[in-house]
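Sequence in, structure out. Go.
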Amino acid sequence: MDGTNDHSLPLRSPKRRRVNGNLSPSRYSSPDELAGSSDHGTPLTYHRRRTSSSNLRRSPTDHRRRSYERSDPDSPDELDHTTYPAFWHDKYRREDLRPPTSASRHVTPEAPSEISMLTPVQSPVCPPLSPATPLPPPPKQAKYLPYKQRMVLKGHKKGVAAVRFSPKGDTIASCSADATLRIWSTSTGNCIHTLADGHLAGISTLAWSPDGRTLASGSDDKSIRLWDTVTGKAYPLQLLGHHNYIYSIAFSPKGNMLVSGSYDEAVFLWDVRTARVMRSLPAHSDPVGGVDFTRDGTLIVSCAGDGLIRIWDTATGQCLKTLVTEDNAPVSSVRFSPNMRFVLAWTLDSCVRLWNYVEGRCVKTYQGHKNEKYSLSGAFGVYGDKAGEVGLGEKKAFAVSGSETGELLWWDVQSKTVLQRESGHEGCVLGVDTWDQGGLLVSCGLDRTVRVWERISEAEAEAEAEGEVNMEGEVKNEEVVNGVVKEEDAGLKMEDSDVADGLQHDDIK
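Output:
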């Protein structure tokens, strides 16, 4: 209805009342007009019809009072629906639909109190906590306990390039430029197997299969060999396809695939059963220094001397992301974080960078070590209340790396604080790996040694802090040469050490 009189229709023109000298809106207002004056058109229209049907005379003051009662901006009916649940909207709507009584027409409503305007309405779905409900205690704050060197494993004739814990942590594998691999006992330090007669040149990288029964090695002779860790023998099939030195390899979580990076600038994805290349990724324009799988096997990361870090889809071979820094420093090694959200990268500008590869940005940079010449690698770890166990307190993550100065550095992942700096090797530390369940760490370097580090107990840490460490009956440092433990402490009591059982096997070579 446009408000004009149409003589063909027997309708009355809308009546308007004069309030304070002004004409009030028509009682037959359009829906657009009602929507502009209030959020709830139905209650207001019903109210006006009721008042228009009555013959009582009302003063402009009463009209203003009714308007205040119906359109109070602070009433719960006028609040946003995201603040109050629909239950309360319906409740107030039902009250609005009730016809006003004669008493309510003339009684001035009380202004809402300050408390009622500031106190939020509680939802019946989420009732407030009772004051008597005890709050859970805060988790115990994570405390970093330092690592101490426990054993020195000797046997390699040349520098040791890489070292890894087995999936169960009971053995350690190392590879060297002397073209051999060695498998060591974690508890005793004895050399269980020496894997030789498989490569014709130095071995730069190794990887454990998820079940721990197979060990893969990549060599400068351009081949990848698979070894039976139970018998210490090599499988007859070799993985051949690269045209230059092999720098890095990694198993998929299921153990059916292997990824390799080479000096020939290519990344190969292998079928372990058939020893054939499933996919060749034209990854980089410089030698590939590191590769790794995510824990679910869906993504592969690679890095190279061209300064690029690439994320690949395992199923399609498509490059999903390319990460690069402004100075474009060569990247020597990469590792996925355990939660698969970040990539830790070692670059030849003495930096270790943590990348959020989804957003394509570097979120943390760790410094303090020296890395300008060699290809270094490291690992993630966990510290806190009984790190490695579940649900016993707060736990935090750390990153650890070697240095060309012979040191190892531990950083807190979040704060970038240097948690520990420890010397041990003579020369560059090339590889580091962690086993959180046992609180152990292993490192290797150009000094031809493999060193085992153990997290000290809280009692030891307190005793060292007080300067009251009693070394009697404690293994401070053990040197293991070809499976034989040598005592370095004259007052050492071997019957109290963890390596006492290893001294009974002198025939192990």
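Check: DSSP finds seven helices and 32 strands in the chain. The helical segments are 31-37, 41-53, 60-70, 86-96, 102-106, 114-118, 458-466.
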